[in-house]
## 1
Amino acid sequence: MRIVWFSILLLAGLGLAQWQNREALITDFRQVQGVWIIKLDYVEVRDCNRDDCPAGLEISNQNPLLRTFRFTPSTKIFLLKSAGEYFQATPQQLIQGLGGRNFGWSFDKYTPFYIRVNEAKREIIELRQMYLP
């Protein structure tokens, strides 16, 4: 009986490992042969209370390895309209925002995003702009 429970827990853990929630910077975003491709650099966003950290947040990049994922028809992009309100965006709006267009709450290539990815399939599930004061 213990072996059965261990097997079930192991399989559940493997399934969860495929879908990961992370924070990342967008380093490249383009369409290749009709498929949207995004390159991400995983980062850590930490609270800080130092004089050299006026925003109260610190973005740390301990592993500069870039990861490439593709968008699917079900991929969701959420951009901030205000401090607490998101709207669902298109890939074109994401490109416009990275290029400087303001949809209510500006961002740039140094703004981290919350991402949900399927590592095994190399697919983006959700991309959500992080609120930075």
## 2
Amino acid sequence: MMQPLRPVSSPAAVLSQLPIGTIPIGLALQYLLYAVFAFWAVYSIVIVYHWLKYSHDSRIAFPAIALHLFLSVALMAWALSGTLLV
């Protein structure tokens, strides 16, 4: 009969080894938002390329792409600025 696997160490022991207390939460959040922004930029480039390649002269393509880029950059700039004003 097979026995269940036993972890080498508990998850709490692994988490205690991470330098969580040395990095301020605000800085960690900022780096997370930078990573999200980088992922968004690559994703947007791929989407724009495919939309322009396969849309076959769609009249809505350029305005929709411009609106997407403007709103996305505005939201990311607001998120990275750290201001709480809406």
## 3
Amino acid sequence: MRPIFLAVCLVLTATSPLSAAPTDETADIAKNLAENILGRGQVRSSRSTNGGRGLVMAWESPTYRSHHAAAHTRELLEAEVGLAWGAIWRVLHRVEALEFEITSGGRRLCSGTATRTRPLVIVYARDLGN
């Protein structure tokens, strides 16, 4: 009878939600905060780095329209980053930097870095200029 009991305990332990791989709580919270600004389902990926002090995120731009002038598009993309980053760092005090990529339909519009202490750095797609 003991071997059966031990086998059942091992199966229950192995399939328990507590034994599952830990989730990246910082990245999950950051994703939710960013989606409060960008819209539900816009963030494609979110992960933390440097022990939770950094974030790497990618999202679909909710503001990009192909008929907008390049200067207008750059302004809107910068606003997206500023608003999303502001929402994140006001809540997640440990996070010091965000590396991001903004896309539209699989096309990279821009990427860059936002930190608490340095100016925002954005590299735009070639057709959007700098």
## 4
Amino acid sequence: MNSVDFIWQEIAEVQSGSYLIIRTEILEHEKSFLKVRLYLKDELYIQIYRNDDYNTTNFVLVLHDERIYARDEVRKKWHRHQESNPQIHDTTSEGKRNINFKEFFEEVKTIIYKMKLV
């Protein structure tokens, strides 16, 4: 499901349709590797990481340089870091669910509104 090309396309679609993203920082973008930050505020951003060679995907919501929510894929296995306890790996059926960036962005919107971050 996820690949650098697929995620790159989803990022572009989310950016074009969301007023929440104020700035984009492309840290690295190569054929099989991607690292991007989408800023919602100066201290609040989503970091997207994908490495096709290692089948690794990380979607992370960061506030003040601390992870507050994340979805991680390592060797085709997913887990979630919930906002209630972002240090713990959630491996429930919902936590292990495959997810794409657009779905993650929808989760982030729910979280940031609930936490009154925007």
